[in-house]
Design goal:
Number of helices: 5
Strand order of the largest sheet: 1-2
Order of helices and strands: HHHHEEH
Radius of gyration: 15 Å
Strand content: 5-15%
Structural class: mainly alpha
Helix content: 40-55%
Number of domains: 2
Length: 111
Amino acid sequence: MEQIVKSRSDIAFYMKMYPIVQLHPDAYAKSKAIVCEEDNDKAIRLLEDVYAKKRIKSPECDTTVIDENIRLAAKLRITGTPTLVFPDGTKVSGAMDATKLLGLIQKHGGG
């Protein structure tokens, strides 16, 4: 996604934090800490720290965003990450390289 965003200013990705606590018990608190960060650059650094398995601060706000995301995932029958939902409603799960992702974006109405 990062590679595509750098090369295509007409494409944007909207990320929803969806912690799968059955696999990662700390994911809920970590997701909440990221969502609570008001500065987008700092939120991205927190996310990168999570991926690097670094300790991050506890959530600093009281938000229901993560719970809402979990309910949305259930409604859309999303059970894993990453899952992409394209403008035409198509859902695709799993990691992929930029070339494949760009092809899917073009195929499903996003560019």
